[in-house]
Amino acid sequence: MIPVMDVFRLALLNRTLNRIYCSLDAEGEKSPRGLETMQRLTNFLISANSDPLRILTCRALANSAMHQWGRLMLINDVNTTVKYVAAQLNSAKHALQLAATTALANWALILLRHTESGKVAELGPREDALRAIIQAIENVVSFGDFNQIALIRLLQAIVTLMWGDVAVIQLAKGRDIIGIMNRIKDAVVDESGKAIARDITEMAYSL
Asked: What positions does the domain PUL occupy (predicted)?
């Protein structure tokens, strides 16, 4: 399965293959495969007992965001899949942390753009995504063992989900995002990461 998933996650970078495997719209007599693709990837995250398979699954989800069909597939049912991707943050494997946070950062940007364009009328998906991320990391006492790039992408995902919306910021503040940011800021080395953590903290304090 791992060689197949490795090929599949690369295939999703191709425009034509992305449309074939991620589209939610039927073409002629062919049924859309997007929902099936999402279900299979989600099932891998739930049931896989192999870190390499979970890593490749997260990379496939991240790569699907390269084209419009994959982006629409990702936001079709945010609550279900984001929860299982965020759960990978509890892994000690740096490659899995990085793959998961890359997928989460892509999700956050897609949701923000759809909200700004008016294509997503409700805030539910952004709140669901942020809630899933916070639930996965709120009990982490120290982020010192986290991959540094993964920490940056995690911060990017959080700040993007919170950006410009009081309801989402209130949710984050109510789940002690300030305390979480203080712990991440202590662990992240890059100054740009510390700056993002400060921005998130300031957003929470602004309410």
From this structure: 1-203
